[in-house]
Amino acid sequence: METANELKQVVKEKYGEIAKASKSSGCCGPTCCGGEESKIVGYTVMKDEYDNLEGYVAEADLGLGCGLPTEYAGIKRGDTVVDLGSGAGNDVFVARAIVGDEGRVIGLDMTEEMVEKANLNKTKLGFKNVEFHLGDIEQMPFENNIADVVVSNCVLNLVPDKRKAFSEIYRVLKPGAHFCVSDIVIKGELPAGLKKSAEMYAGCVAGALRQEGYLGIIKETGFKNIEIKKTKVIELPDEVLRDYISDSEIEMFKKNSVGIFSITVVGYKN
Questions:
Q1: For a Cys staple, 206 with which of 18, 129, 201, 259, CB 3.0–4.6 Å?
Q2: Do residues 182 and 152 lie in contact, with contact meaning Cβ atoms separated by under 8 Å?
Q3: Which segments in the chain show pLDDT lower than 70?
Q4: Domain boundaries, the chain
């Protein structure tokens, strides 16, 4: 799990398992599927509720997000929106309800099983202005300056080269356009057991940057008017932590006030 390619493979395998499990069992999140899939991240502890949002499709909600980026993204009717790490289509379908028939929503995911599931959901809904692509956030298969808004929900921490990811976001945005992403950041130092865990990496924890480092990358990329729209404390239950660290380490982890947070951030291209 040391190289970038190995990290990507971990993510592909874990999220492929989630897509397959939800397809076979009909569950709406990894924690209800049992077996190894549920270890990926008891991570419905991170998610926000979509139920009251227009365009919400339960079959597309696998409980994998850590925020509601579409709520703060300032999406307008007729916009072209790109969703990075689109999964089964959850944020794509919410965005589609906002852009209407005049707009366009494009999902990108590197997991074949997720793209397949998203396309099945799209077919059921009959949308003509929604599309899902298989591809890498570090090298998006899109032209320059195509998006009015880029959104992403708890995905960029899964990308080994975050500078490249934000550089690609900058490239595909139109001049003056913006992104809105929800992601995990940390304050303090994570215990080694959490940092080395494949499951915790796939759950956006082990790969999380400190908040100042995360925001620094966004600024260095060239984005302006960077603003945190929402911050939410993430508390991992002891039963999850015990899979990776000892009870004494859990006690020290809490005593040291190490913080895990979900932040929703907006930034604008010049």
A1: 201
A2: yes
A3: 1-2, 22-47, 195-206, 257
A4: 4-268
Give the angle subtended at the CA of 231 by the CAs of 227 and 237, to the nearest 5°: 155
- Quick one: fold of 4-268? Rossmann fold (3.40.50)
For the chain, the C-alpha Rg in angstroms (whole number) is 18
Q: Can you tell me the distance from the alpha carbon of 157 to that of 185, in angstroms, rounded to the nearest whole number?
A: 9
Summary count for the chain: helices (H), strands (E): 10, 8
Q: Pick the closest to residue 50 from 1, 100, 87, 8 (CA basis).
A: 87
Structural element, H or E, at residue 70? helix 69-72
As a whole number of angstroms, the distance between CA 43 and CA 235 comes to 10
The 10s digit of each residue's pLDDT in 89-118 is: 999 999 999 999 999 999 999 999 999 999
According to DSSP, the β-strands at 259-268 and 173-187 are antiparallel
Distances (CA, A) of 120 to 23, 87, 159, 251: 10, 12, 26, 45
Burial 131-148 (b: 16+ CB within 10 A, else e): bbbeeebbebeeeeebbb
